[in-house]
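Run log, item B.
One chain of 70 residues. Sequence copied directly from the ordering sheet:
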Amino acid sequence: MFPDKEYLLKLVKTRMPYGKYQGRLLIDLPEGYLVWFAQNGFPEGALGDMLRSVYEIKQNGLEYLLKPLR
């Protein structure tokens, strides 16, 4: 199943609500930060789902697919 365009737009426009990278776009979070979440657990809910998606996108080198949506 492929994510819909609205979900992808949300990924590129949502900012991290807390922590060291508060205010940074999720898609711009450092890969190491996302790896930490992958190893220690993503937050519950929509934020966790989006962080998990960004992690998968970065792990697979697919960031270029989101550039046109920025």
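Observations after the first pass:
- The chain has a mean pLDDT of 91.
- Residues 23 and 40 are 22 Å apart (CA to CA).
Flagged for discussion on Thursday.
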